[in-house]
């Protein structure tokens, strides 16, 4: 666990990763628009326990639900001090989904997951395809369903994004990933 990271460092590392990997490799064709319009809210949680993180998640649900889309379209809730183990983080996603239901925001908001140890089912830990979801720090990406629906409607074959990302990462390989200069932001490990 990296307890010495500052909020500024966590946000800078996340922005660099977003620009070079997510946008640079076009892993999410919808990310560039909200990034260039400064509609991404970056929040670093000081939470040390899952319960404290859940309180921050609920607070950010409220922020996004109440903000205008032109102001905030998506939130990256970075939590470097809690749920640093991927399996614990992955289990916590069920709590987050239940919380969306509890506050009547299911179908309005959704949460996507990114983690420095992200691992898809049936893959080896070092499989390059896992890097599509490997962020510098554990991160919960809170999105508006409305924005997703509009982006998918505007993007031909949106259902193929996952497959395209796998292909991109396989072509890139570990050497290509390392050439992106993200080693400094991926230094965070359990």
Give an overview in words.
The protein has one domain (7-176). Helix content is 45%, strand content 12%. It contains six helices and four strands; from the N terminus they run H-H-E-H-E-H-E-E-H-H. It has helices at residues 7-23, 31-36, 50-66, 86-102, 145-154, 161-179; strands at 40-44, 74-78, 109-114, 139-144. Strands 1-2-4-3 form a four-stranded mixed sheet, with helices on both faces. Helix 3 packs across helix 4 (86-102). The radius of gyration is 16 Å and the shape is globular.
List low-confidence stretches: none
- Roughly what percent helix? 40-55%
* Helix and strand sequence: HHEHEHEEHH
Per the principal axes of the C-alpha atoms, what is the gross shape?
globular
Biggest sheet architecture: 4 strands, mixed
**End-to-end gap:** 5 Å
What structural class do you assign from the helix and strand content? Answer: alpha+beta
